[in-house]
């Protein structure tokens, strides 16, 4: 090792001793304008690094692309929601009813608001329950974007002036009487069909619907037509002609497809 | 809640068809229209400047320094609409300190910084260095010191040093052209890469943006040159103006062809969005797209410059036609940006409904702020013209 160092000294020692001179010589060789720009650039880089080290929080990047202490800040925020397990500890009766009904997947605090304070101080902090007509329609007002089968009403015409809780027990909100019309839950389809040529065709003409479907819609599903011949029952030239119903020859009309690949049955004129 | 409902109520009346709730109000307003417009002017002005240095087009020499300073003035303002739009300008430095390399928008900060520091400022510095030294030798007081500081106290004006400056300018310009393409190509990329929006998502978008940027840049320099020269009591160089108009004409033809290609491509592809887009173009965007962008901003100026080229018109009439054509081009390119940014948000992602854009007057995102941001570069340019006179006679004061 010592020999190697000696050799290195012999080879490059002159550079070491004259480093200032060599540096100055090389520096002078650089054009004047570049030298000035270099100085400015170095100054800017140093300034940037100083500012950077000063401004970036020390714990930034510890866990990821964020300030690690931000997690503690968020944790230190007061808890406002308690979760429905806590509610069940005292309100067992309501919980039981709710868990057996259509609102079983809804957390208590969706309607009653944040409950953490109430759990800490049940006597002093009381939770309110919405009693007017404004709250339930937030979920149940008719909106075409809501999934079909989801109970929807038009609040202006659905028992106006009566508060929802007069007929529906919110913990088990099954309707006081079984819905008579399919449109009670399938509002969008009913509205689409009402402007189509199928307006006078009852839903049950195409969908065989067990009576239990109205009580337990997911367990008892209505049927759907499976074959071309089903539509052909009205629309095939082979069937007796009914005035105003368009008919096609099923042998030649779109042979390889089933009807609803081109015609939407609830609005058959749109395709 | 009440406030939100009051704000949205008038918009709801303008909606047609079915749209999702979060599409009623546009997220990107007029400030995001101004941003690509201004960035385009920067790229366009710089590319015009590079014609002199890289392609040795001597005729447009009188506009070289004007182009550089215009690009610089507009570049200073380019990020301001975004900062105003995002609402927290005081936090903007953070993208430089802890950059997120996965964010295309964050990376723009670096493209911008590169273009400003490594291209424009350097080129301006090398080009003006000799003049700065000479000016500071003959001046007194504040101006002397401003020029001295701007020259970084440089003193070498030997033939060798001047030759080096010229070489440096040429190299920077060569690097600058792809950088200018990157700067504005990026703006097109930001829109073109949004897969979910059929009005934006197009590979051609960065290229169309780029050529429309060059068109708007050349037209802007024509306007500035034609306004400033008579104000200084000088004669407009018709050779220069004719050449500028020629470049404007040819690049407009390329831009027009690219836009037509994009249009034909969309129609031929006829993706599922075509019906709503057709409804958009023939309805809400008809005036701004067909009348202003296409007829007034493209076909009319193209026809006007073609007439000048075909017939031998007197110089005064030529100037008038060029000026009006350049103004129309500016209006046209601004509406191009409008149609891209606002148009892309007017239709629902359900492809079955249209909303409308309601601009506010006051506030950070309002019309007043927009007018201010459009005028600010001209104020900066005025100051730059005062500090760094780009005129030919100012060049030789040695």
Describe this structure in words.
The complex is a heterodimer of chains A (271) and B (398). Chain A is mainly alpha-helical and 271 residues long. Chain A has a domain at 187-261. Chain A is 40% helix and 0% strand. Chain A has twelve helices and no strands. Chain A has helices at residues 2-17, 19-29, 32-55, 69-75, 84-90, 92-100, 108-112, 116-120, 137-140, 187-194, 203-206, 228-235. In chain A, helix 5 crosses helix 6. The longest helix of chain A has 24 residues, at 32-55. Chain A is flat, with a radius of gyration of 38 Å. The mean pLDDT of chain A is 86. By secondary structure, chain B is an all-alpha fold. Chain B has a domain at 29-193 and 360-398. Helices cover 73% and strands 2% of the residues of chain B. Chain B is built from 16 helices and two strands. Chain B has helices at 2-14, 30-53, 64-77, 80-86, 94-97, 104-138, 141-150, 159-192, 205-231, 238-269, 274-282, 286-310, 315-341, 343-346, 367-387, 392-395; strands spanning 16-18, 352-354. A two-stranded antiparallel sheet of chain B has the order 1-2. In chain B, helix 2 runs antiparallel to helix 4 and helix 9 packs antiparallel against helix 10. The radius of gyration of chain B is 23 Å and the shape is globular. Chain B starts with a helix and ends with a helix. The relative contact order of chain B is 0.16. The mean pLDDT of chain B is 91. The A-B interface holds A 31-33, 36-37, 39-40, 52, 55-56, 60-61, 65, 144-145 and B 18, 20, 93, 97-98, 100, 122, 125-126, 129, 152-156, 161, 164-165, 168.
- Determine the N-to-C terminus distance of chain A: 88 Å
Spatial ordering of strands, largest sheet of chain B: 1-2
Count of alpha/pi helices of chain B: 16
The gross shape of chain A turns out to be: flat
Any low-confidence stretches of chain B, pLDDT <50, length ≥5?
A: none
Q: Major β-sheet of chain A, in short?
A: none
User: Which strand-content bin applies to the residues of chain B?
Assistant: under 5%
What percent of residues of chain B adopt helix (DSSP H or I)? over 70%
Biggest interface pair, residues each? Answer: A-B, 15 and 19 residues
Q: Residue share in helices of chain A?
A: 25-40%
Structural class of chain B: mainly alpha
Number of strands of chain A: 0
Please describe the biggest sheet of chain B, giving its number of strands, its sense, and whether it closes into a barrel. Answer: 2 strands, antiparallel
**What is the first-to-last residue Cα distance of chain B?**
69 Å
Residue fraction in strands of chain A: under 5%
